[in-house]
Design goal:
Helix content: 25-40%
Number of strands: 15
Number of helices: 12
Radius of gyration: 20 Å
Strand content: 15-25%
Strand order of the largest sheet: 3-2-1-6-7-8-9
Order of helices and strands: EHEEEEHEHEHEHEEHEEHEHEHEHHH
Distance between the termini: 14 Å
Length: about 325
């Protein structure tokens, strides 16, 4: 099959949707499918990738999305759909690229909804936009994302989670017992980095490392900035615990899955999207969002527990491409 995968967000900026799309494309090609990724972005594109140029920032849901909004970009994208058997659009109600390609009526349409938020005053506009989309197979990455999508589209959705490539097992020698990691944007308040900073102040005997765009200069935290996938894997491999202190607006706990795949224990805020991924107290120590004392107590408890590397990795296997990829192919065949 010829499959066009449309990512609304720039590939220049790290993010869960972009990583999911490029990971899916790679898996599809391994299965002998022809997968083209279409997305905003600059620089030299990877093979079978159409980059549409510089993105335009748009603030929404406590974050800043980098979107392709210009008519010239959407025209190029729609033209690239010619001959596609499947057009798989991620976040189809997003302005610009995603909505234009979803409405284009080229090939069999599959859409995946990733976001979780309260539609509120945007609900009427989103319902109108959804009603203009052609016949499609609709997917959501989690129950949380499905609840948002269902509220504005009125359709039933398949639940197919995000996926990862399973890393090699981490040797005991590679693990630093007292390293604790944060993964995400340091400069995005909803990611809860201020809570991570409070933890660093509370545990002087523990090494703290943060991987993601932004810097605060906190003296107790090694802030790496934006890192490659390989470096991120090294960080998680060397960490005993990942802390995910996110406050709201999460639709899937990809960072939890990646940590478990590397054998980490997890300390996380008790968000519905996170509990959708793993609700096992042997693997995750929970605390309420915004509750810094609760986060301190949770980390203290996690550091006192014995390692659960084997169970963590086994749990993460449910979110590998070998498991999730065939579910996506089945969705393509439903249309």
């Amino acid at each position: 099959m010829r499959i066009a995968l449309v990512c609304p967000y720039s590939l220049d900026t790290p993010g869960g949707v972009a990583r999911h799309v490029t990971g899916l494309a790679g898996w599809l090609r391994e299965q002998g499918q022809r997968a083209l990724v279409i997305a905003p972005g600059t620089g030299r594109p990877a093979p079978d990738t159409l980059l549409l140029g510089r993105a335009t920032p748009l603030a929404f849901n406590g974050s800043v999305a980098q979107l392709a909004l210009s008519p010239a970009q959407t025209r190029r994208a729609v033209a690239a759909l010619a001959g596609a058997d499947i057009v798989h659009v991620h976040e189809p109600l997003t302005p610009g690229l995603a909505y234009a390609t979803a409405r284009a009526g080229r090939g069999r349409l599959v859409v995946t909804h990733h976001a979780h938020f309260e539609p509120g005053r945007f609900a009427p506009v989103l319902r109108v936009r959804a009603s203009a989309l052609p016949r499609r197979t609709s997917v959501a990455v989690s129950n949380a994302a499905a609840s948002t999508a269902r509220a504005v589209t009125g359709v039933e959705l398949l639940i197919i989670p995000n996926a990862i490539a399973m890393p090699d097992p981490v040797s005991v020698a590679a693990r630093r017992r007292m390293q604790v990691a944060f993964v995400g944007r340091l400069d995005e308040p909803r990611k809860g980095y201020s809570t991570f900073c409070a933890l660093a102040d509370e545990f002087p005997e523990v090494d703290f490392v943060a991987a993601g765009p932004g810097r605060t200069g906190h003296p107790r935290i090694k802030e790496l900035g934006q890192v490659s996938d390989a470096t991120l894997s090294e960080v998680l491999a060397a960490s005993a615990v990942l802390v995910a202190p996110n406050l709201y607006g999460e639709s899937f706990g990809m960072v939890l899955v990646e940590a478990l795949a590397h054998g980490c224990s997890v300390v996380a805020s008790s968000l519905p999207a996170f509990r959708d991924v793993v609700d096992d107290d042997r693997l995750v120590t929970w605390f309420d969002p915004h509750d810094t004392p609760g986060a301190i107590a949770a980390l203290r408890m996690a550091l006192s527990k014995p390692p659960v590397r084997g169970l963590a990795r086994e749990t993460a296997r449910a979110f590998t491409w070998d498991v999730v990829g065939p579910q996506v192919l089945a969705a393509y065949e439903r249309g």
